[in-house]
């Protein structure tokens, strides 16, 4: 029992030394001069998220969970659209009809269960959210193609996605100006 206790004490000491070494390494990496850039960047990020969330509720008239369900449908459509090569903003807009075609093959079929698995939500919640989106014609539920984008998404893409793209550009430009972007890029390179 004494040997076990002694070994546990050694492990605890090694762990504490590793934590201290990691902390001092983090301190070197995130120096005091980066703190203002981080707090300013974090504030701008939070303001971006709050504005984004408000726009979802006010402009799209849907709750955030429904919006996230919609994003799975959009990402599924973009995944298949990108198989022919990446597209510009305008090319996506021009190919919108392709993204909402109800004659996609069964292989591409997006189902309630798939969305539920991706989002870790109950299948019934996903089904209810999809049906609410279908009532607004944002998505379509088709027996052959599954859940696909509906005709109302075309307006969302043109207005909401366009505004979000501009807002994202503004955020990144602010981050570049105040040094946050450089710090983020350094963090990414470090790992």
Tell me briefly what this model is.
This protein is about 75% helix and about 5% strand. It is built from 9 helices and 2 strands, in the order αααααααββαα.
| Main sheet summary | 2 strands, antiparallel
Percent of residues in helices comes to: over 70%
> Assembly type of the shown chains?
single chain
Using only CA atoms, what is the Rg?
A: 23 Å
Strand composition percent: under 5%
* Biggest sheet strand line-up: 1-2
Question: What is the 3D shape?
Answer: globular
State the low-pLDDT regions, or none: none
Give the helix/strand class. Answer: mainly alpha
* Discrete helix count: 9
What does this structure look like?
The relative contact order is 0.12. The protein is built from nine helices and two strands, in the order αααααααββαα. A hairpin with a 3-residue loop joins strand 1 (139-142) and strand 2. It has helices at 2-29, 35-60, 64-81, 89-94, 96-99, 112-119, 123-135, 153-178, 180-190; strands at 139-142, 146-149. The protein starts with a helix and ends with a helix. Helix 2 (35-60) packs antiparallel against helix 8 and helix 3 packs across helix 7 (123-135). With 191 residues, it is mostly helical. It has a two-stranded antiparallel ribbon with strand order 1-2. The model has no long low-confidence stretch (mean pLDDT 81).
What labels would you give this structure?
two-stranded antiparallel ribbon, mainly alpha, 2 strands, 191 residues
């Amino acid at each position: 029992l004494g040997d076990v206790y002694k070994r546990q004490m050694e492990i605890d000491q090694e762990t504490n030394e590793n934590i201290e070494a990691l902390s001092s390494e983090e301190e070197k990496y995130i120096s005091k001069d980066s703190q203002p850039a981080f707090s300013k960047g974090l504030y701008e990020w939070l303001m971006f998220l709050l504005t984004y969330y408000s726009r979802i509720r006010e402009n799209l008239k849907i709750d955030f969970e429904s919006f996230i369900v919609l994003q799975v449908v959009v990402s599924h459509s973009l995944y298949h659209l990108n198989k022919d090569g990446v597209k510009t903003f305008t090319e996506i807009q021009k190919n919108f009809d392709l993204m909402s075609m109800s004659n996609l093959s069964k292989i591409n079929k997006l189902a309630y269960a798939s969305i539920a698995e991706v989002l870790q939500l109950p299948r019934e919640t996903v089904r209810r959210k999809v049906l609410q989106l279908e009532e607004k014609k944002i998505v379509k539920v088709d027996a052959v193609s599954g859940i696909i984008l509906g005709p109302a998404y075309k307006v969302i893409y043109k207005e909401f996605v366009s505004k979000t793209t501009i807002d994202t550009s503004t955020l990144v430009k602010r981050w570049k100006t105040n040094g946050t972007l450089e710090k983020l890029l350094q963090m990414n390179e470090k790992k």
